[in-house]
Write a structure and sequence with these properties.
Structural class: alpha/beta
Radius of gyration: 25 Å
Order of helices and strands: HEEEEHEHEHEHHEHEHEEEH
Helix content: 40-55%
Number of strands: 12
Strand content: 5-15%
Shape: globular
């Protein structure tokens, strides 16, 4: 009789444990998922890369400085990503590395191919190169390439598109200048319709050219000189762009929302500053 009572009590305890587990465990999973921290993404902005020390400055760094940057970031546990990785994180819930970072190069200098690509291959890193269509056409027509001043040609752009280490993005066809129109921003007195037509004709021209020459269509627009306007963002989205790179400075805090992909912040990397001093901005 006593043993029957014990068995009965044990059976009741087992049932309670099973019921409690079926209710409580899912609750833990939901809280854990909801409490997942946001992603911190620093993006570095480079331009020209030269060995001539007399020309180094705010927008020109040396190949050695690029290499030291890459080594420092690896030592700090960072993993390079490109816009495709970031877009998949937002749109397809893909995972990002624990400490992601993005290396971007503006304008499409030939020096990016000469000096940067070998470093990316050597250290298994990725980078985004935003090209300007007018520069590519002129460089292609000239034929002779010099890393001191030339830009990429269409053949080189196609080669970079096929590289697993480089992602090509749109930096406008002919709006990379400061004149009456500052970069690609709307001009005073210009109607929305007029401005929209100019943007589609210019930015769309480069989109079509890249797709025709390489079979790839960029997803991201990089603002020339960082000039941004509300109308521009709206038109770019209508054109099919899902992200933009700005010149605003700061670390991007991403939670997976689509609008967070627009006006992504970047840190311009000048020459002459140590890796520790420059990259400490990420923690501010």
């Amino acid at each position: 009789m006593f043993s029957v009572k014990i068995k009965y009590i044990i059976l009741i305890i087992i049932c309670l444990v099973l019921v409690f587990s079926s209710v409580y465990i899912p609750a833990i999973n939901v809280i854990s998922t909801a409490a997942k921290p946001s992603v911190r993404l620093p993006i570095i902005m480079y331009h020209h890369v030269l060995k001539d020390r007399s020309r180094l400055g705010k927008y020109i760094v040396s190949p050695k400085e690029i290499e030291k940057d890459i080594l420092y970031l690896k030592e700090q546990g960072y993993t390079t990503i490109v816009m495709e990785d970031l877009i998949n994180f937002v749109y397809n819930k893909a995972e990002l590395p624990e400490k992601p970072i993005m290396l971007t190069f503006d304008d499409g200098y030939y020096s990016n191919y000469t000096y940067v690509l070998p470093l990316l291959e050597k250290y298994d890193c990725k980078a985004v190169i935003s090209v300007t269509g007018d520069y590519i056409d002129k460089s292609t027509a000239e034929g002779e390439l010099n890393p001191a001043y030339s830009y990429l040609t269409w053949d080189l752009v196609k080669e970079l598109v096929q590289s697993p280490y480089v992602e090509i993005q749109n930096h406008s066809y002919g709006m990379h200048e400061i004149c009456e129109r500052k970069g690609c921003s709307i001009m005073k007195g210009e109607t929305y319709e007029e401005y929209s037509k100019e943007m589609v004709n210019d930015v769309g021209k480069l989109q079509d050219a890249i797709e025709e020459k390489t079979g790839y269509r960029p997803t991201t627009f990089t603002y020339p000189y960082g000039f941004v306007c509300i109308e521009c963002n709206e038109i770019l989205q209508k054109m099919g762009f899902v992200a933009t790179l700005s010149c605003y400075e700061g670390v991007n805090i991403l939670t997976g929302k689509k609008d967070e992909l627009f006006e992504l912040k970047r840190f311009n990397r000048p020459s002459g500053i140590s890796q520790k001093k420059f990259f400490e901005k990420f923690n501010q």
